[in-house]
Design goal:
Number of domains: 2
Helix content: 25-40%
CATH topology of the largest domain: Rossmann fold
Structural class: alpha/beta
Strand content: 15-25%
Distance between the termini: 36 Å
Radius of gyration: 21 Å
Number of helices: 14
CATH class of the largest domain: Alpha Beta
Length: 337
């Protein structure tokens, strides 16, 4: 007989705590001498975050190897991508954000919905409309269309292309500071980065010393997370074993019936749209593979609202805490992050 399956609703208080409370800017292609702070490097050796001095003009090299020079603090910011929305609202005053991604207005997945409803920023899908907003700085994703970025740059809009394919929690912390550096909101970014770091440390502290490593499978529909994913780093930081990576998955890849049965995870963590947790649980438990796993037999299937499950942003700390509390309980701390 199966034990009860767990569901986790979005921890609203935690979500609200995450939301925190520059002109000439130009770009040029050749990085100047003196750039420093190669904070985090990929395996190919290319630095993720490269910024220069604290004095103005400030300079930072983006994912296109374009150096963005900022003459003074920016106060009209465009965010082109959903995870960047969450960075800027975690660091900047909400009224300074003049355009956001379409996802920011999708209440069922947006962690910044209340802020966008209050100030009604434009949607940054049309680069010509964005240019007409006369922004001080535009932040676009490394996943974004190259023609979108090129068009914005050709019009004279200062554009920084951010890394958004994170594979480590440290990258998120560093990019919080990057947003503060680019906009002049250094103090706010430092506070948010410290909060994020402390939240991760607190979640890690929930694991009892000397306890066995839980084997955890992350599921997004019929896909799972292998090595070189943020899920891998989260599970490792929490003292667990990522079942996908353990069995050779690289990146985000599909899984099938035979794999799940053979891997036999001890825990399964999945996401669900707001209000759809029961439906997702029913689907999981009707799956002949999942129902045979130790995770299902022991009641270790955890369904988390997509607003917590999906972010690759400062809001990821809520996901880390949710997994830690589901697996280890709250035996080492009685307060909320």
């Amino acid at each position: 007989m199966h034990q009860p399956i767990r569901t986790i609703a979005p921890p609203v208080l935690l979500i609200l705590l995450v939301v925190a409370i520059a002109g000439g800017v130009h770009t040029y292609a050749s990085p100047p001498g003196g750039l420093q702070l190669p904070v985090l490097e990929r395996e190919d050796g290319d630095a993720r975050v490269r910024t220069g001095r604290a004095q103005y003009p400030r300079e930072a090299v983006d994912r296109d190897e374009v150096t963005v020079s900022v003459a003074r603090p920016a106060h009209r910011i465009v965010s082109q991508y959903w995870s960047i929305d969450e960075f800027v609202y975690s660091v900047l005053p909400a009224q300074d954000v003049v355009a956001v991604s379409e996802s920011a207005y999708a209440e069922e997945i947006s962690n910044v919905y209340r802020s966008v409803q209050q100030f009604k920023p434009a949607v940054a899908t049309d680069p010509e409309r964005v240019v007409a907003l006369d922004p001080d700085l535009m932040l676009v994703s490394s996943n974004g269309r190259a023609d979108y970025t090129s068009l914005a740059r050709s019009s004279g809009v200062p554009v920084y292309r951010m890394e958004t394919n994170f594979v480590a929690l440290d990258q998120i912390e560093q990019n919080i500071r990057l947003v503060g550096y680019l906009t002049g909101q250094d103090e706010s970014a430092a506070k948010e980065a410290s909060r994020f770091h402390a939240a991760i440390e607190k979640a890690m502290s929930l694991r009892p010393p000397g306890s066995a490593k839980p084997r955890i499978l992350g599921l997004g529909g019929r896909y799972s997370y292998g090595s070189k994913t943020l899920f891998q780093d989260i599970v490792t930081r929490l003292g667990g074993v990522n079942v996908g990576a353990e069995n050779g998955l690289v990146g985000y890849d599909s899984v099938n019936f035979e794999q799940i049965v053979r891997w036999d995870p001890e825990w399964i963590v999945a996401g669900a749209k707001t209000g759809n947790a029961k439906q997702v649980l029913a689907t999981l438990m009707s799956d002949p593979a999942i129902s045979l796993t130790r995770a299902a037999r022991n009641g270790h299937v955890v369904v988390i609202d997509n607003r917590v499950f999906l972010p690759m942003s400062p809001y990821t700390s809520i996901f880390v805490q949710a997994i830690a509390e589901a697996i280890y309980g709250r035996q080492h701390t009685g307060d909320k992050l």
